[in-house]
Amino acid sequence: MTATKKRALLGCIADDFTGATDLANMLVRGGMRTVQTIGVPVSNETIEADALVVALKSRTIAAADAVVQSLAALDWLRAQGCRQFFFKYCSTFDSTDGGNIGQVTDALLDALSADGANQSTFTIACPAFPENGRTIFRGHLFVGDVLLNESGMENHPLTPMRDANLLRVLQRQTRSKVGLVRYGAVANGVWSVRAAFDALRNDGVRIAIADAVSDADLHTLGAACAEFPLITGGSGIALGLPGNFRDAGLLDDHADAAQLPPVEGLSAVLAGSASKATNAQVATWRETRPAFRVDPLAAARGEAVVEHALAFAQPYLERAEPVLIYATTTPDEVKAVQRELGVNQAGHLVESTLAALARGLRERGVRKFVVAGGETSGAVVQALDVRTLRIGGQIDPGVPATVATATDSEPLALALKSGNFGSTDFFAKALRHLDGGAS
């Protein structure tokens, strides 16, 4: 007799790949066995896990397309039996005035409201991640000690963030009324937050920005949202969700939730992000280790950039020495390339080049990849034909180790990093972790 697979409790939709692993990392830390899918699976065969995270590449596409993909993910997660749903976006609220956070949230609320679910016409938006310096106070998003629009995110090549007031940012994206759960309510505990929710609902608010400056605040908000069909935010708000399921008697304790099988093979680092953090990580690596810089303009001229990079890497790989191949550069240089090639073409060129390099490195025996940048990570996992990831232990806040569990080739170990995350020595630290050592 075949044992019945345990159906997932929490179903998550992430708007990029590194954001998905960031969220999955948080859930694993809370004791939830977590599987991440790359895109919406074709099959509805039950995946045995406590939490499922569908990783989309929808952050910077047209809002209408992001809505279609997100609703498809919701349908698949419903078929998996999930009891609650989570829409995950970046802790820096990366978006444009046209979307996609607001429009996707509206669509998910509408879909869940059609079920007649209680409270499904109201949710929160909380991108706070205090462990990585993202806090919200009076509705304004801070990165460290500065406002979002002074943090370097104002120079993001695809989603420049020039307004730290999240109420204004979100209201420009949604037809729903946006309100604020002030810090005073959060500091006074779960019942105070729920009272604030009720007051906002009565005022016609459908989406509430929630202040949070500490992990304790996120636990409070998570508990207050225990009965919500939909929660939206960064990975930080997920801190409080496993406890809700545990308190309800639905989640067993899993001491081995982060355990991954070992992966043998060579190692490499691919970096495409132009963030300050990734620039610093590239600089640190280059001080003592081999690195090859990809020039987008050379690729645009038709030069054999991929072949040159692989030829550079070959002697190091023969000695089992990891190499970095990067397109990371300064914001000014990014703007210069965008002026010459156009914003979309420049981004696509970098992604497709690094994706081709990932395939070439795998053909040469690389089985352990560290990848920097959300768009780059999406391109790489698609190029490697990764379908699902089992989530392991944390390397740095927001970045877990993962193992690809459904490729046609040998298993792959992956560390997929948001551009803004990680210490300056992250690349070396991540490789040690993927090799089975301490981070």
UniProtKB/TrEMBL annotation:
<protein>
    <recommendedName>
        <fullName>3-oxo-tetronate kinase</fullName>
        <ecNumber>2.7.1.217</ecNumber>
    </recommendedName>
</protein>
<comment type="function">
    <text>Catalyzes the ATP-dependent phosphorylation of 3-oxo-tetronate to 3-oxo-tetronate 4-phosphate.</text>
</comment>
<dbReference type="GO" id="GO:0016301">
    <property type="term" value="F:kinase activity"/>
</dbReference>
<keyword id="KW-0808">Transferase</keyword>
<comment type="similarity">
    <text>Belongs to the four-carbon acid sugar kinase family.</text>
</comment>
<feature type="domain" description="Four-carbon acid sugar kinase N-terminal">
    <location>
        <begin position="10"/>
        <end position="240"/>
    </location>
</feature>
<keyword id="KW-0418">Kinase</keyword>
<dbReference type="GO" id="GO:0005524">
    <property type="term" value="F:ATP binding"/>
</dbReference>
<keyword id="KW-0119">Carbohydrate metabolism</keyword>
<feature type="domain" description="Four-carbon acid sugar kinase nucleotide binding">
    <location>
        <begin position="268"/>
        <end position="427"/>
    </location>
</feature>
<dbReference type="InterPro" id="IPR031475">
    <property type="entry name" value="NBD_C"/>
</dbReference>
<dbReference type="Pfam" id="PF17042">
    <property type="entry name" value="NBD_C"/>
</dbReference>
<dbReference type="Pfam" id="PF07005">
    <property type="entry name" value="SBD_N"/>
</dbReference>
<keyword id="KW-0067">ATP-binding</keyword>
<dbReference type="InterPro" id="IPR050007">
    <property type="entry name" value="OtnK"/>
</dbReference>
<dbReference type="InterPro" id="IPR037051">
    <property type="entry name" value="4-carb_acid_sugar_kinase_N_sf"/>
</dbReference>
<keyword id="KW-0547">Nucleotide-binding</keyword>
<dbReference type="InterPro" id="IPR010737">
    <property type="entry name" value="4-carb_acid_sugar_kinase_N"/>
</dbReference>
<dbReference type="InterPro" id="IPR042213">
    <property type="entry name" value="NBD_C_sf"/>
</dbReference>
